[in-house]
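Internal tracking record. Fields below are filled automatically when a chain is submitted to the structure queue. Please do not edit lines marked as system-generated. If the sequence contains nonstandard residues, flag them in the REMARKS field before resubmitting.
Queue: standard
Priority: normal
Entity type: single polypeptide chain
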Amino acid sequence: MPETYSSATDGRLTRTGSRAIVIGLAAIVAILAVTAFLLFRNLPDADAFNAAIERLILENTNLTSPAELRLIGILAQTGNTMSAVLVSYRTVIFVLLVFASALLITALVLVLALIALNRKLAQVQKAGIQVSSLVISRAERKVYLNDMEFTLTAAAAETLAALAEARMDGEMLTGAELEAVVSGKRAIDCDEAAGATRIKRLRDSLGNQIVSEVLVRNVARQGYTLAIDKNVIRMV
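SYSTEM-GENERATED OUTPUT FOLLOWS
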C-alpha cells in the first residue's frame, strides 16, 4: 500500500538538488572564464600588424622611392585589413563562448530535470497510484480510473475484473490462478505463463506505462494484485 515519505527526506533531496545546481553552474562559469582568459590573452593584438609596419617605417627612413612608398602603402592597407580580421576573430570567439555557455547550462538543467523526474517516478512506483475511484464496466469493456477512461479488449477487461475481485477479497492471484479465473479451467490445468501473458496484454491495453506498471503490481513469489485500496473498487 502507499508509503509515507517524510518531509525531512524531501528537504534533504531538495537541498542536495540545489547544491548540485549551484556547483554545476559555478563549474561551468569557472571553466568558460578560464578558457576565455587564455584565448584572449594568447590572441595577437588587433593593432600588432600596424605597430610592426610603423616600426619598419621608423627604422627605415631612407625609403623614399616611388616603389618603396607604394610598398609602404600596401603594407599599411594590409595592416588595417589584418586589424579588422583580428577584431572579427575576437567577436566570433566571444559569441561561440556565449553559445557554449548556453548549451552547457541547458544540458545541466536537462540532466537535473531528468534526475528529478526519475526520482519522482521511483517514489510513485514505491508508493503506488493515489486512486480515489476505480470503476470497471464489463459490459462496455471500459475502466474509469479517477478522471481517466480506458477502453479495453474483452480479455483485458476480464483480467482486470478478476484482479479487482481478488483485491476486494484481500487475495492475490498467481499466473495460473488468474488464468483459471478468466478461462474457467482448474488452476492445476493452467500454465503460469498464460496468466503472465494476460497481465502483459492488460498493461498494453491500459497504454499509460506509469499507470499500468504501478496499478497492476507483481509481488514476488505471491502473485498479482491491484496496488489500490479495495474500498475504491466498483464493478458495474
